[in-house]
Write a structure and sequence with these properties.
- The chain has about 300 residues and is of the alpha/beta class.
- The chain has one domain: TIM Barrel (Alpha-Beta Barrel).
- The protein is about 40% helix and about 15% strand.
- The strands form two sheets. An eight-stranded parallel sheet has the order 3-4-5-6-7-8-9-10.
- Helix 2 packs across helix 3.
- It is globular, with a radius of gyration of 18 Å.
- Bound molecules: NADP nicotinamide-adenine-dinucleotide phosphate.
- The site of NADP nicotinamide-adenine-dinucleotide phosphate has 27 residues, from helix 9.
């Protein structure tokens, strides 16, 4: 039975979900259908992943009632601004084939256009007020981004989705999130970004870490299962990505064992303080060149 987390507005969300970044459109529908048949009830997509349509199709093919599946998606930076973000909701719901989103988040801060980031969040507040989304949040927000957002807006983000795995545990983000009542959700929760092909030759994969392997051996579980258990026991949401049916099942088979406080501390101690993904403080004009298609 998957753990449920209660967001700061009372909405409940499954702690463990399926991510679909880099899931090719032709594999995404099947991955979503497999995940839902396995027991997953949270799917994390994004306008920028260009597979919202296939996610919607997978949900419909599952035969589950819409209310049984928690759909999370993200507004891309080129759609930031008040009117643009309201329209981004139309695009996302049109592609997903739904009339309400469970969670809509800003994909990342736009550090050089923070006024547009705020305007986009203002639009999320309107969508929330209108019942078009059940919860709103952010992604890749550092503590200082969150502080600026909180000072300029009314609704505390329900979720902050950030890079978080044993080699990058973001303690400052986790404590700022906790202080404001924002749930931290881990992307690359099993260290995907530490072993993406072509993503840095000398990067160490957390999948091969001796401590993780040792703990996995002690529980007769896999490294991925140990990392997911670590997130869940520390109260985070995690959204591992796979398009492989056996790994989709493996990543959900994490509710029959418990890590000890000592094991959790050993995993915490692996933090290198070095991110593998993009720095949210670096402005990247090229991101704005990506146009999110109409539904
Ligand atoms: P991840 O879930 O940590 O790792 C995914 C990688 O691990 C894939 O290469 C997958 O390959 C492989 N894998 C999955 N299960 C495995 C297992 N049990 N054993 C061994 N390998 C396994 O990394 P991620 O995809 O970067 O992050 C997960 C989700 O977070 C994304 O899909 C997306 O929804 C979200 N995300 C958000 C942001 C953001 O900026 N907000 C950025 C990145 C990701 P196979 O598919 O072949 O199994």
């Amino acid at each position: 039975m998957v753990t449920q987390l209660t967001l700061n507005n009372g909405v409940t969300m499954p702690a463990l979900g399926l991510g679909v970044f880099q899931s090719p459109p032709e594999l995404t529908t099947a991955a979503v259908e497999t995940a839902l048949a396995t027991g997953y009830r949270l799917i994390d997509t994004a306008a920028a992943y260009l597979n919202e349509r296939e996610v919607g199709e997978g949900i419909r093919r599952s035969g589950l009632d819409r209310s049984e599946v928690f759909i999370e998606t993200k507004v891309w930076v080129s759609d930031y601004g008040y009117d643009e973000t309201l329209h981004a909701w139309e695009k996302a719901t049109g592609k997903l084939g739904v009339d309400q989103l469970d969670l809509l988040i800003l994909h990342q801060p736009a550090p050089d256009r923070f006024d547009k980031t705020i305007a986009a969040y203002r639009a999320l507040e309107t969508l929330l007020g209108d019942g078009k989304v059940r919860a709103i949040g952010v992604s890749n927000f550092m503590p200082h981004h969150l502080e600026r957002l909180l000072a300029a807006t009314d609704v505390v983000p329900a979720v902050n989705q950030v890079e978080l795995h044993p080699y990058f545990t973001q303690p400052a983000v986790q404590s700022t999130d906790a202080e404001s009542g924002t749930l931290t959700q881990a992307w690359s929760p099993i260290g995907g970004i530490t072993f993406y092909p072509g993503w840095g030759e000398h990067r160490r994969s957390v999948m091969d870490d001796p401590t993780i392997l040792d703990i996995a051996g002690a529980h007769a579980k896999s490294p991925a299962q140990v990392m997911l258990r670590w997130h869940l026991q520390q109260g985070r949401s995690a959204i591992p990505k796979s398009t492989n049916p056996s790994r989709i099942a493996e990543n959900f088979d994490v509710f029959d064992f418990e890590l000890s406080p000592e094991e959790l501390a050993r995993i915490d101690a692996l933090d290198t303080g070095v991110r593998n993904g993009p720095d949210p403080d670096v402005a990247r004009a090229e991101l704005f060149a990506m146009v999110i298609p109409e539904a």
